[in-house]
Structures are given as C-alpha cells and as structure tokens.
Amino acid sequence: MNETRGSGKRRTARRRAGRPTSEDSAQVDERILESAARVFLKHGFARATMEEIATRAGITKQTVYARFSSKKVLFSALASRFSKIVFRPEQVENISKGSPRAFLMEFGSEVMEVLRDAKPQQLFVVLAAEARAFPELASETWVQGPGRLRVCLRQFLDDQIALGRMSIPDPDCAVEQFLGLLVGPLIGRLLFARPTYFDSEERAASYIESAVDLFLAGYLTDAGRQACAERAGGLARSASEGEPSRDRLPR
Asked: Does residue 251 form part of some domain?
C-alpha cells in the first residue's frame, strides 16, 4: 500500500518536472514571433500561414494556436513587440532633460539608431501596408510607438517653453516638424524601396545634428541659447580634449 502510494508520488513528481517552465514558455513564444516576422516579411499578412510559421519555428501548428488563437492575434502581438523594440519609448522617456540641444540630439539618436536596422525597416513596411486592413491594430501600434514618442517630445517642449528657453506658438505642429525632419527622408525611401540615405553612422549623426540645429534655429530663445552655451561650457571643461559636445549653439 505504502509502496503504491510512494510510486504515485514519484510519477506526479516526474510529470511536474516535465512541465515547461515559464522560461521555456517564453522561449517558445520568442521562436514563434521570430518565425512570424520572417513569414510576414516574406509573404505579407494575407498570404502568410500559421502552418509555415509553425514549421519555421520547429513546433506544431497546435502549439502556435495554443498561444496565439489566430493569425490576426499573432500579427497584433508582433506589432506590439515591434513598437516596443523599434520605437523604444522607455529609453526616450528616460533621456535626461538637459538643455534643448542635448535632449534633441539624444532623442534623435535613439530613434535613428533602430530605424537604420534592416529588420525593423522591413517590419515597418509590412505594418504600414496592413494598416488600412487592420485599423484597430494600426491604432494600437501607433499609440504604443510613434504616439508615445510624440507625447514625450511634446512634454519636453512644454517644459522648455515654461522655462522660457523656447518660443513655440503651436507645440503639436513643432512635434511633427521635428519628427518630419528626423525620419521623413528615411520613411519615404522605405515605402518606395529605395536605398537608405543614412548608409553610415557618421552620415546619420551628421544628419541628426543638422536637423536639430535647423529646428532650434526657429524656436530657441536667448535664454535657451544661454542654457545650451552653459552646458556646452561645462562639458568642455570636464570632457577630454577633442571630445564633441552635443550642446554647442546651432549654426
């Protein structure tokens, strides 16, 4: 009797030991999402199949459906992941609120760094192509990614206006102007499958700097120029000789 009870406990322990851990489950989800990204990039949403996604992930179609109940749900999960990875709103929201030039240079660098990567570029094109077919998904992706970037930038501009460093009659318009300067050329080339203008880090950095200077030239006040100059002076004193500063005054 005791032996039977003991063997039952051992069988239960073996079953529990064989269950996938949360880490294993997360790895399966990651494989599915990576596979889905490749399939959606290759075929688009309409022609992509859950069967091919499962095959590429090395799992059964039933396993895919157990985690993502439909192709639309899977595409939505991929879009959410895309927004968080590509637009990286958390990193942007945590940028130090220093001088106007320092913030905008770092903001631009964060956005440009990922958008220059080939895979996010391709995912962006797929999501843009499916936006009209999935308006709710497009809206959710916008809120989680580009929308959060705009909120962050608008909050910073409002702070600078309150400090008297910038004079901006229409902050919402200014947000669109800066983002247009920053990523407009890249987005246009992506949508028409043209080679990117930003073919090197040096060229991208130079473009960001020019965009920031052009933007600030229209909105920076004397107090804002002084804030940039003071921060640039402090950095110059503490930095090693020849190290560039992000706070020099716009040309």
From this structure: no
Residue written as token pair 């968080």: 84
Residue 177: CATH number of its domain: 1.10.357.10
How many Cα atoms within 13 Å fall on the side-chain side of residue 56? 19
Q: Residue 65 and residue 137: Cα distance in Å, rounded?
A: 19
Question: In terms of pLDDT, which residue wins out, 204 or 115?
Answer: 204
Average of per-residue pLDDT values in the chain: 79
Assigned token pair, 30: 């990651």
What separation, in Å, do the N-terminal and C-terminal C-alpha atoms of the chain show? 89
Mean pLDDT of 203-223: 94
Which stretches of the chain are assigned E, i.e. beta strand? none
Does any domain span residue 5? no
Cα 220 → chain centroid: 28
101/182 same-domain check: yes
- Cα 246 from Cα 251, distance rounded (Å): 13
Q: What is the pLDDT of residue 85?
A: 61
Domain that holds residue 218: 75-238
Confirm if 86 and 124 have CB atoms less than 8 A apart.
yes
Indicate yes or no: pTM above 0.90. no
The token duo for 138 is 């497009």
CB 109 within 8 A of CB 208: yes
